[in-house]
Structures are given as C-alpha cells and as structure tokens.
Write a structure and sequence with these properties.
Layout (H helix, E strand, L loop, with lengths): L2 E6 L6 H13 L3 H4 E4 L13 H9 L2 E6 L13 H11 L3 E7 L7 H13 L2 E4 L2 H18 L23 H15 L9 H7 L12 H6 L3 H4 L5 E5 L11 E5 L3 H13 L4 E7 L2 E9 L3 H14 L8 E5 L3 E7 L22 H9 L9 H11 L6 E5 L3 E7 L2 H4 L32 H16 L5 H8 L3 H13 L3 E4 L6 E4 L2
Parallel strand pairs: 1-2, 1-3, 3-4, 4-5, 6-10
Antiparallel strand pairs: 6-7, 8-9, 10-11, 11-13, 12-13, 14-15
Helix pairs in contact: 3-4, 11-12, 12-14, 16-18, 17-18
Length: 505
C-alpha cells in the first residue's frame, strides 16, 4: 500500500518546486516505496473539470502537503482561493496535514497572512527558504510519519551506530581525563587506568554487537566534526538589536561537546560588561567583579542547547549576543513529553540524547533532575533580570532568550560639555603629595583582578584567550598567573593539556 500525497499551493508561485518535489519523492529509495504524489497540473487538460476536481483528489488522498508563500491566488465568487478550499476540505475530512511556509523576503498578501494564521491554529507549520530547505523539511516530515506508522524503524541518535565510529578515531587521553574528572565530580567508580573499551562500556556507548555508538565521537572524538559536520556552535556578536552586518565578532567553535560549551560560554562572557568593584576591606588584594549576565545561567543555557539538540539536523547551535538580549538557538523541537509551560517550573528530565546527557552529567555539566531551566530562572532573578523566555520557532528550533540589563541597551554615545567650570578652583592643592607610590605595582594588581575574573568565568581558558580579553601579551598574563598562584588565590587541577584553573578564594 502506498500513501497518496496531495501537494497544495498556488501553482504559479511554486511551479518549479512542486514539480521537483514530486520527482524527488517518487525517485527516493525510501519515500518512493511508500508514497505516490498527485499534482493537479499533471491531469490531462481534457479531463480537468470544474473546481470539484481538486477537492475530489483531496478526498482521495492520505496526506495533505501544503506549501504557502506570499501569494493568495485567484479567488472564486465567494472570495476564497483554491489553496484555501483544499486546506479546508483536508481539515474537514481529518486528513494528515503537513504545512510549510516560505520565510524568504517579500511582501505577503494580507489574505494569505490571515490564511496562514488560521492554519497555524490547527497544525504546526514549518518554515523554509529555498527548494533545498523545503525538500529537507518534507523528507523529515514524511520519514517521521512512516516511523509513527511503524513502517520504518529509526533508532534515536545516541542509541545508533550510524556513524560507524572506530576505536582508533577516539582519543584515549580524553577518555582518561574524563574518568579523572568524573571520579572527582560524581564519585564515579571506574578506575583511571581502565581500558578505552571498559570506559565506553561503563558509559553504555558500545552496543551488544560491539559497535561504538554516536555520542562517543562527540565526547572523545579526535575530530568529531568528521562524523557530524553540523555539531558545532556558531557565535555572533551584534552591536544592535537585530541580525545585521557587519558583526562585531563571529566565531565557529568545533571539537568535543565540553570544549564547545567552554568556548561558547567564554565568547559571551568576554563580550559583556564586567564591573570590577572595590577591594575587599578584609583582603586588600581581592576585588569583587560582576558580569552583567550570570555566568552559570549562560553556561547552563549553552549546555542545554548542545546536549539536547537534534543531531540528525543539518543545522548548528547558534549563540547570538545582541545589545539588548542573548539568544541561544538549538536545532530540533522540544523532547517528547516536554512543553513550554513546563520550562518555567520544576519538571521531570526529558533528555533528547540520554546517553550524551549521562556522560555530561558525570562531568557535572548537566544535572539529571530537570532543574536546569529552574536554575537559569533563579540566577536571572538574583541578578535582577527578567525571567528568560523559551520558544519554539517553526516547530524546528528551540530558542532561549535572556534579557541584558537596560544599562547595556542605552547608547554609549554621550554629549559632554567639555568647557571648564570657572566657579571651581582648578589649581593644584600643594598640601597633598600627588606623586605615585612606587612601592606598589598598580598595573599588575589590576591585571591580576582581570585574570582572576576571567578564570572564574572559564576555568579552562588558555593564556592566549586571557591575553586577548585583557589586552596584554601572553608573557604579561603569565606573570599575573604566577602572582595569583604564589598568593594561593588559584591552583591548577589536572594535567597541563586537559586541566583547569580553580579559584580558591
């Protein structure tokens, strides 16, 4: 049995897309076995009757596939287009409906906008830009339909060995360091000298047939992007409140999931304000600092995006810092059983990738109690910030939006009256010794405070990264590190290559 698909759209607007999509479905090795496509333009002209032809085909179809663009189309005597009549008929006959909306630039007919809005009240519509995007979205939707019918069996990403990972492609040193950290963070009882196979077995990353499962590459791969090219984090910094060029900074971070989380967190924290407060009265060497966004909340949001994303998607995690907000986009919808309403209260854990989440839990990057979003909200409230917002875009992307303080929204351009106030005596008070106390190295103390603040934010920051933020040479940062170590304000935990800094104060 084949399922019959009725493709509905304004024909003249999507003439090429309709033809290409029908051909693609018919020729695909999997879809062609399960689906057949009806296109109204393929019906011989002499057989085309009144408007009832396309409505009768809707009655005979199993799946209604709607493609909606900017044009509403020709209307009948009642002012309704053929496309809208087709959708109404499919809804009335309770047909399985999948709908796609063109998100490319262009002015949309108000009647079409109203129609799309009504469709959105019934079904989740997905956006696309260009034919390739549409084809990918249609394939995913049809494959999901077949999976739901039990006609194909698609294992979850992290339970599959689809990448055909080999043991030689994994880093033994990464696995050993993982064990050391997990023993410290979670009292994991796997021996440090365990073999790579034993470590993978303890993490449930080898199946019964000895195949290494997909998450192993993301955790310990020498080159994870070789297997999963989209498993990267794209970070962008915009000086306005919208996406526009030029960008103030743009980075693409690759590597294992731990490195990507650390790098992306450091990207955000190094591009927001950090107010260095006065030295503590009890310890004149210690200065307080406060970033405009709480680092634990930023890190938690990035961890969630990396850990719970849909790794079957060709999209990447995106971290976008605007002048008024931080947006973190994660490919894939909410996990089954999760709703937007549950995000704002205590809830069960619904990991999209359970095995990956378990490994990240052992490294203390995530918790397994469903408290992540609650912790983000609590941190933002402690900072005096509005509660973050979570939303689903086009049924395909999960987005978190965190507001920046209003002070960061205000323009940095100010009008200053530089004229001298003649009512003030600006002559130097000679009773005061204005000479610099040469016994104190003021520049070094300031650098130490900056370095300490950065290491609190990113314990795995490299000397190059710290030097780039502070604006000094690597040698200068090394001197500050030595002073901090000598004062026992920081200490190195772990090896030189995979270790991290711990602030002891």
């Amino acid at each position: 049995m084949k399922y019959r698909i009725f493709i509905s759209s304004v024909q003249r607007e999507f003439a090429k897309e309709r033809k290409a999509l029908a051909s693609y479905i018919r020729k695909d090795a999997i879809l062609g076995k399960f689906f057949e496509v009806f296109l109204f333009e393929e019906v011989p002209a002499q057989e085309r009757k009144a408007d009832g032809v396309y409505l009768a085909e809707v009655d005979d179809c199993d799946i209604y596939l709607g493609i909606f663009g900017h044009t509403y189309g020709n209307v009948d005597s009642r002012g309704v287009s053929a496309t809208e009549w087709e959708y109404r008929r499919a809804a009335a006959r309770h047909k399985y409906r999948i709908c796609f909306v063109d998100k490319s630039a262009g002015e949309t007919d108000p009647r079409q906008a109203a129609f799309i809005s009504r469709v959105n009240d019934d079904v989740v519509r997905k956006g696309f830009v260009g034919y390739d995007d549409l084809r990918t979205a249609v394939y995913a939707a049809l494959a999901k339909h077949l999976e739901g019918k039990g006609l194909i069996n698609v294992l979850p990403f992290d339970c599959s060995n689809s990448a055909n990972i080999q043991l030689k492609d994994l880093s033994t040193s990464k696995m050993r360091q993982f064990v050391r950290d997990a023993r410290i963070e979670r009292k994991w009882n796997v021996p440090v000298n365990a073999t790579p196979v034993k470590i993978l077995e303890a993490l449930r990353l080898i199946d019964d047939n000895g195949h290494i499962l997909n998450p192993a590459a993301l955790l310990f791969g020498k080159d994870p992007q070789r297997y999963f090219p989209a498993s990267c984090v794209k970070c962008a910094w915009f000086l306005t409140d919208r996406v526009e060029k030029p960008m103030a900074d743009h980075q693409i971070y690759t590597g294992d999931v731990f490195k990507m989380v650390d790098d992306a967190t450091f990207f955000v924290m190094s591009h927001i304000s950090n107010q260095i407060g006065p030295h503590d009265a009890a310890d004149s060497a210690a200065a307080t600092s406060r970033f405009e966004l709480p680092e634990p909340a930023v890190r938690e949001a990035i961890v969630n995006a990396v850990c719970h994303r849909d790794y079957a998607s060709a999209a990447s995690v995106q971290v976008m810092l605007f002048k008024d907000r931080l947006e973190i986009w994660s490919p894939g919808p909410l996990p089954k059983g999760m709703t937007l309403a549950k995000m704002y209260k205590r809830h069960k854990s619904y990991p999209a990738n359970p095995l990956l989440a378990y490994a990240m839990f052992l490294r203390k990057y995530v918790e397994q109690t469903g408290t992540g979003t609650g912790d983000i909200i609590a941190r933002c409230r402690e900072w005096g910030l509005p509660d973050p917002k979570w939303q689903v875009e086009d049924g395909e992307d999960f987005v978190m939006v965190m507001s920046r303080p209003q002070s960061s929204v205000k323009s940095s351009v100010r009008t200053v009256d530089w004229s001298v106030d003649k009512t003030v005596d600006w002559s130097v008070d000679k009773s005061v010794d204005w000479s610099v106390d040469k016994s104190v190295d003021w520049s070094v103390d300031k650098t130490c405070d900056q370095v300490l603040s950065i290491l609190k934010t990113n314990p795995r920051a490299t000397l190059d990264q710290v030097a780039n933020v502070v604006g000094l040479s690597v040698r200068g940062i090394e001197q500050a590190i030595k002073r901090l170590k000598k004062a026992k304000r920081i200490r190195k935990v772990g090896g030189k290559r995979f270790g991290h800094w711990e602030v002891t104060e």
